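User: Before I run my own analysis I want an independent prediction to cross-check against. Here's the chain; please return only the structure tokens and, at the end, one sentence I can use as a sanity check.
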Amino acid sequence: MDINPWELQKLVKFSLMEDLGSGDLTTNSIVPPDDVSTGYIIAREAGVVAGLFLARAVFQCLDPVMEFRAGLRDGESMEPGRILAEIKGNTRALLSGERLALNFLQRMSGIASATARLVELISGERARIVDTRKTTPGLRVLEKYAVRVGGGGNHRLGLYDAVLIKDNHIKIAGGIKAAVEKARQGCPHTVKIEVEVEDLDGVEEALAARVDIIMLDNMKPENMRKAVTLVAGRALVEASGGISARNIRDVASTGVDLISVGALTHSVKSLDIGLDLKELKLRS
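Assistant: Structure tokens:
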């Protein structure tokens, strides 16, 4: 797990505050404060698990001595009925943290599973699946982690770590050449420059400007193939726009290096995962 622990702690505390407010009215009215329970996080559908460390963090934020035994590791496959974790601790903490822990786990596992499906669909091709910045505000670091767990890679993490010159930048600058020149003047030499193009003329302009990555935006596979031939290894070639499970194999077969898929994070379906309490007894 390569997420900054301080960032993780801050996110968990903020999310718990959003849900709990001044306290869990239902649980605190029904459950005695010293009750202890054992529960199981259980997969209700098949997929790739991601986010178990985050579920642990939620429960242990509410009960620091909560026992959390994971039955799988992030990135492993799960089938319906598989126990993902056994948890033992304060019942109030279990019930109050249940929804948040499952929300994180379901969302991240859904992303990891969707990524794994696309990776499998292009098995044997050189292309690598990557994500985009079309993420849930505040949850980007988690969603991009889930993409990696599913076998994909990350595009830039934000606006701060790479240059991506898109159509509006090109219009304002007065062309690809001018936009790239301005970017080089304004950015450190260690930063890669990528340009989005819509046709083969744009590919030639990007090559002339000596960019690092050329993004083929909404091109048909036949034009992507021509673009790859034209680039001839002088830059990385990324396919983007309108890519799904239906056409991703055709896109990968064109020889592109990267395939970015926004749907991995902006419209993915969460996996069905539940938590069942198994016993209740007084803490000694």
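Sanity check: The domain at 5-118+269-282 is CATH 3.90.1170.20 (Aldehyde Oxidoreductase; domain 3).
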